Amino acid sequence: MSTQFWKRTVDIFMIGLFIALMGCSFTGDVVHECLGILLFVLFIAHHVLNRTWYQTFMSRRRSPRQLAFALMTVLLFTVVVFMAISSILVSRTIFAFIDYDGGLFSRQLHQMTTHLALMLAAIHFGLYGKRFFGRWTRLSGTKQISKWFAVAVPLAVICLYGIWACYRHDVGQKLLMRQAYSFWSGSRITFFVDYTAIFISCSILAFSVERFTSKK
């Protein structure tokens, strides 16, 4: 199997795990922490598979736009590391032997890093996952109005729904470290649909910005 196959497989599983990890109240602490460890293992595998990016990071000349995208990748890497650290600090099962009570700050930090990592991962996917947007690229560039609307309207609806889902789940408050816990009284399906929409909307917006700036 080719390297591209493994890259796509790891990326898809990482996206699924990112979204699944947002629902700790549904999975329980043990499953949540096991999935978190698996996500970090895939995170390492992702970087190993894309190690050539790091090998050319310092030597490659970049435009301001490319430099901004590269810095976004470095930021994502940093946030994921802090997410892993905060997850250990708030662990109740697998890492409970550490016996460290991080208190409210650690939980606020974990909420912030997990949500920020999810959104940065979505942006990263939108900037670098062009192979997943190939069909949309072809259809959005067509001169046939009907085909253009068939793509643009659903994507616009998803983006609007994702923005509304951010408001409904108080994502802004979590990013500002004003919430230590997540409370959700709705259905499990709605919860995961909301976070899937948040991920997709961030990816679409990032991909749209990348396409727009690449034409400048």
Note the main attributes of this structure.
10 helices; mainly alpha; 216 residues; 0% strand
Q: How would you describe what is shown here?
A:
- The chain is an all-alpha fold and about 220 residues long.
- The protein is about 75% helix and about 0% strand.
- The protein is built from ten helices and no strands.
- The longest helix is centred in the C-terminal third of the chain and has 27 residues, at about 190-215.
- The radius of gyration is 18 Å and the shape is globular.
- It starts with a helix and ends with a helix.
- The model has no long low-confidence stretch (mean pLDDT about 85).
How is this structure best summarized?
The protein starts with a helix and ends with a helix. With 216 residues, the protein is an all-alpha fold.
